[in-house]
Fold this protein.
Amino acid sequence: MAANERLRGAMVTANVTIEGLARRLGMDVKSVERWITHGRTPHARNAHAAAKLLAADPYTLWPGLGDKHRSQPTPRDELVTCYPSRSVVPAELWRGLVLDAVGMIDIAVANLLFLADAVWDLESLLADKAATGLRVRVVAPSADSGTRATLADIFPGLASVPGVRVVEHPGLRGDLFRSDDDLLVTTPVDGLTPALAPVLHLRRLGTAPLTSGYLTALDHLFTTGAPCRTGLRAVAA
């Protein structure tokens, strides 16, 4: 089989070795090597992950990917991993998704205290991303929704950052954190606090059989949310 020179070139441009790419993808080195030397087309999930690390288009690196996977991805293909609770999600993953975003960031988080701990410099990161033209949207719990701390308490300057759209919504229950095609979704469970609820790491593929519902929910929140009332502050408990 012919070697994949497009992939080889993308790795050279990104200064990424076969061993380095395999390590970051959590894969066997030999499997990644065969992508290059034998022109193998990887599984759609691995192809998208590798392309993102290389800042490349997966369908350019693997032209056959569309024929093999793109038209009929399954919900299982979109599941990267599942964490049993939010506390075991790697701390660097939240901030890393913000740093890696190149097209859009959507954040709908009911627990703002948790978000401040996970991404301590969120305001400055989002400001930098918005300044490059990246779409940034944030929906926060409204002051009358019973939240213990509002956006103004935790991120006082976020609503005034140029290019960042911020709305409030009284119906936030779970957490949705989107960076391009990657989503971290907290799945609420009755009787459990959000910190103990499972977290899904999803990656949108093709027709998005699993992620489409969450993406629709995000758009609904931003459509039905109210402009952030930056002048109102709740008393933090």
The first helix runs from residue 5 to 14. The two ends are 64 Å apart (CA to CA).
